């Protein structure tokens, strides 16, 4: 009886440990097929498994979603007929409760980001070529846009694809204008500082970007050129110091880059290739920021859009839009390389959020 009791206790502790290592994953999707909106899954950081898929909120084409810093609210763009940005409150059961919805002030909103204070949001409108700034209330609701910047000019169509706050700075990647814009907060409004912080030669199509923690380097992933542009901060702004292809030498087909992320320790940089259907892995020199391609890992799916590292940094999850699955990889902490673990079916996943 004593042995049986010990066995039951160990089993209970094992079950408790598994549950305690479970983290909620929210998934933005396209709803032109089977999907109905934003989904919630449970991710086990001990096993790398996804389970308990639940529809968290019905909303049209939530193609990009972002947390508030306190993780009490989620903001989603509606890349469809609504052209809206929607605020949700996280309920105790993990599902999402609608707070309000406002216009994105441009067609095809494809990205939303929240500042560190949690009181401002920026939305990138790919189709309209506009950038919209919003103030966020204490209850998480969005006010109508306080500023809207139109990047279109007479002979050049803008396709704004992403934006990020950095203290009083706002950086915007414009795929259509092949430029990285820089705005600065002055007297409570954002003012343009530079329409191109660095020269982007040809038609690379800057899509997303990531910054080092010390803000001295920016890495831009280019959709059309299948490349990463590395920038460094100077006395007068930023300048490009290197360019890297994201494709394997053996690949000869058509491909388009999508997302980019640094590892938590900034020793590795990752990018997604739609077409080659891979995640490219770069080893990063911590002293000068240069990159070395060490792997192009198959995503075990088709059209990898967004990807993310889990909170522990030991797993990578990839949203494969066309094959309707999320692939999970183990990240080697010494080398940064990826090893495929498993895959989970989900219709048209395009954004992953822990």
From TrEMBL:
Natural source organism: Mariniflexile ostreae
Region forming the signal peptide: 1-20
Family statement: Belongs to the cycloisomerase 2 family.
Name used for this protein in its record: Lactonase family protein
Keywords on record: Carbohydrate metabolism, Glucose metabolism, Signal
InterPro entries documented for this protein: Cycloisomerase_2 (IPR050282), Haem_d1_sf (IPR011048), Lactonase_7-beta_prop (IPR019405), WD40/YVTN_repeat-like_dom_sf (IPR015943)
Highest taxon, organism lineage: Bacteria
Keyword Signal tagged: yes
One Pfam family this sequence matches: Lactonase
């Amino acid at each position: 009886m004593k042995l049986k009791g010990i066995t039951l206790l160990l089993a209970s502790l094992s079950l408790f440990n598994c549950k305690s290592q479970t983290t909620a994953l929210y998934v933005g999707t396209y709803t032109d097929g089977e999907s109905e909106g934003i989904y919630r899954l449970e991710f086990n950081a001990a096993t790398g498994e996804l389970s308990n898929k639940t529809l968290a909120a019905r909303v049209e084409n939530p193609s990009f979603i972002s947390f508030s810093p306190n993780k009490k609210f989620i903001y989603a763009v509606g890349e469809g007929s609504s052209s809206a940005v929607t605020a949700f409150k996280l309920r105790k059961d993990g599902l999402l409760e609608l707070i309000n919805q406002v216009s994105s002030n441009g067609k095809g909103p494809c990205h939303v980001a929240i500042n560190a204070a949690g009181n401002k949001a920026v939305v990138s409108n790919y189709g309209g070529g506009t950038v919209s700034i919003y103030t966020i209330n204490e209850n998480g609701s969005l006010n109508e846009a306080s500023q809207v910047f139109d990047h279109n000019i007479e002979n050049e169509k803008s396709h704004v694809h992403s934006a990020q706050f950095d203290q009083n700075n706002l950086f915007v990647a414009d795929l259509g204008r092949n430029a990285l814009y820089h705005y600065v907060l002055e007297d409570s409004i954002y003012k343009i500082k530079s329409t191109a912080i660095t020269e982007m030669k040809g038609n690379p199509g800057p899509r997303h970007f990531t910054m080092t923690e010390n803000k001295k380097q920016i890495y831009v992933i280019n959709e059309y050129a299948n490349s990463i542009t590395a920038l460094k901060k100077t006395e007068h702004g930023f300048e490009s110091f290197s360019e890297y292809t994201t494709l394997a030498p053996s690949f000869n087909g058509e491909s388009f880059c999508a997302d980019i992320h640094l590892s938590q320790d900034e020793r590795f940089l990752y990018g997604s290739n739609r077409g080659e259907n891979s995640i490219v892995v770069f080893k990063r020199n911590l002293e000068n920021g240069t990159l070395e391609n060490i792997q192009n890992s198959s995503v075990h799916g088709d059209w990898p859009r967004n990807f993310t590292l889990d909170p522990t940094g030991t797993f990578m999850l990839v949203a494969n839009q066309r094959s309707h699955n999320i692939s999970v990889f183990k990240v080697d902490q010494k080398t940064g390389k990826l090893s495929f673990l498993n895959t989970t079916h989900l219709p048209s996943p395009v954004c992953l959020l822990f």
